Amino acid sequence: GINVNKSGNVSVRCARGTRAGFLLTPTGVPYDRLEAEDIAFVDDEGRATGRCEPSSEWRFHAAIHATRPELQAVVHTHSVHATALACQGLGIPAFHYMVAVAGGHDIRCSDYATFGTQELADHALAALRDRKACLLAHHGVIACGASLDAALALAVEVENLARTYVAVRTLGEPRLLDRAEMDRVIERFGTYGQVRSA
Q1: Is the CB of residue 55 less than 8 Å from the CB of residue 120?
Q2: Active site residue 57
């Protein structure tokens, strides 16, 4: 429910024999018509193989996989509320503690660049510095994770936060949490959830 028709794309890190790279959804194929054979493989040199061309956004997927080894998957969406903020050049500030799930005090909005370009990849990397999610100006959202499930869950959470932030803005100037509190939240997220001993 966070994408429509053919918008957005997904990648996950993998290797084919000795070739490191990532699997990436193809360009211009509706999700409900995708088959396993349609997924492209893009190696670390940017060479794509498969029966379909990879997403036109392969460059920012490649840049993220090349520079962020802790991240295994990237989900790019055009979800409505996050994209609305991005079209206004707005990131998501610390209006709610859950903003910290993206790894910092805010979720930045990148500068604008044409889709599919190296310039967009460079802007995305800058907005993702020390973060796992960002908005892309006049475009959409990137969410990354240590697994495909984690990246998708973060993309959904960013859209939820964006929807709430849009609502909060209608009530007046948002009241933000301070940096000290966001630091505490980030620290607590480091041990949040089920931890099982061996």
Answers
A1: no
A2: yes
CB distance 134 to 121 below 8 Å: no
The helix (H) or strand (E) run that includes residue 42 is strand 40-43
Helix, strand, coil distribution of the chain in percent, nearest 5: 35, 20, 45
Structure tokens at 151: 């990246």
Residues near 100 by beta carbon (within 8 Å), at least 6 away in sequence: 94, 182, 185, 186, 189
Q: Dihedral of CA 177/158/104/116: which sign? A: negative
Strand pairing class (73-77; 9-16): antiparallel
Which pLDDT tens digit goes with each residue over 113-153? 999 999 999 999 999 999 999 999 999 999 999 999 999 99
pLDDT digits (tens, 9 = 90+) for 81-117: 999 999 999 999 999 999 999 999 999 999 999 999 9
37, 57, 157, 173: the catalytic one is 57
